[in-house]
Amino acid sequence: MRSTWTFPKVATAVGASILGVIWLIPLLWAVSTSLKPESETTRSPITWFPATPTADAYRSVLDQGDLIRWFVNSSVVSVLVTVLTLFVSVLAAFGFSRNEFPGRRVLFGVVIAGILVPPQVLIVPLFQEMTSLGLVDTYWGIVLPQVVAPVMVFVLKKFFDGISRDYEDAARVDGASRWRIVWSVMVPMSRPILVAVGIFTFIGAWNNFLWPFIVTTDPSMMTIPVGLANVQGSYGLRYAQIMASAVLGGLPLLIVYALFQRQVVRGVGDAGIKG
């Protein structure tokens, strides 16, 4: 059956294409600049493509920093933050969605109010707490303050609200405990939204600069954003190397998103329908 192109479809396609080009321009510019000799980055008039492509900027960044160690640190931190956030958020969302207890609405409102609190407000007390616990320059010191995610609790709670209770009743008839219902009924049915939430959490943890910068002083414990920022600071305003750092730092996220793009889109769509 031949599809009919109506004005709304054409307008949507054109608008999406324009937004895609706008999103790609900075990325293409970063890649192009990273492949230029340093003398060419400040040349006038500005050129989109390098006249003499070179990988010197990438070699300089790799030589000046322990990129592999920072990559491992970012991977460990991001995975731990994602797993713990999903674990805590699923349990909290299920409790708010399925349990009736005094003060449930008030407590849920307090959790959601956390969305309105700027993270910068909590930097000093969190750092003092991590120092008193001896968690400075450790993975747990970087991970634990990032686990609290009221947005994730809100999204999952709304999704759970849209799941029929008949599935739980059937599981209870078969003798399933509440714990078994969560992990054998609710989680499998929520897989798309969990994947989407997990990817967003992973990206946020990978890109987080402020907290890892504050809580780490040992170069061997730095994450990718912190380590690359230190490398950039060591050579000043060298645009090719700055862009090479940005490309190296963002490349893993592009790969992760490309691998899970369908699940993310499906999860976001399901969240909108259920919510």
TrEMBL record:
<feature type="domain" description="ABC transmembrane type-1">
    <location>
        <begin position="71"/>
        <end position="260"/>
    </location>
</feature>
<dbReference type="Pfam" id="PF00528">
    <property type="entry name" value="BPD_transp_1"/>
</dbReference>
<feature type="transmembrane region" description="Helical">
    <location>
        <begin position="70"/>
        <end position="94"/>
    </location>
</feature>
<comment type="similarity">
    <text>Belongs to the binding-protein-dependent transport system permease family.</text>
</comment>
<dbReference type="InterPro" id="IPR000515">
    <property type="entry name" value="MetI-like"/>
</dbReference>
<keyword id="KW-0812">Transmembrane</keyword>
<protein>
    <submittedName>
        <fullName>Carbohydrate ABC transporter permease</fullName>
    </submittedName>
</protein>
<feature type="transmembrane region" description="Helical">
    <location>
        <begin position="12"/>
        <end position="31"/>
    </location>
</feature>
<feature type="transmembrane region" description="Helical">
    <location>
        <begin position="106"/>
        <end position="127"/>
    </location>
</feature>
<keyword id="KW-0813">Transport</keyword>
<keyword id="KW-0472">Membrane</keyword>
<keyword id="KW-1003">Cell membrane</keyword>
<keyword id="KW-1133">Transmembrane helix</keyword>
<feature type="transmembrane region" description="Helical">
    <location>
        <begin position="239"/>
        <end position="260"/>
    </location>
</feature>
<dbReference type="GO" id="GO:0055085">
    <property type="term" value="P:transmembrane transport"/>
</dbReference>
<feature type="transmembrane region" description="Helical">
    <location>
        <begin position="139"/>
        <end position="156"/>
    </location>
</feature>
<feature type="transmembrane region" description="Helical">
    <location>
        <begin position="193"/>
        <end position="214"/>
    </location>
</feature>
<dbReference type="InterPro" id="IPR035906">
    <property type="entry name" value="MetI-like_sf"/>
</dbReference>
<dbReference type="GO" id="GO:0005886">
    <property type="term" value="C:plasma membrane"/>
</dbReference>
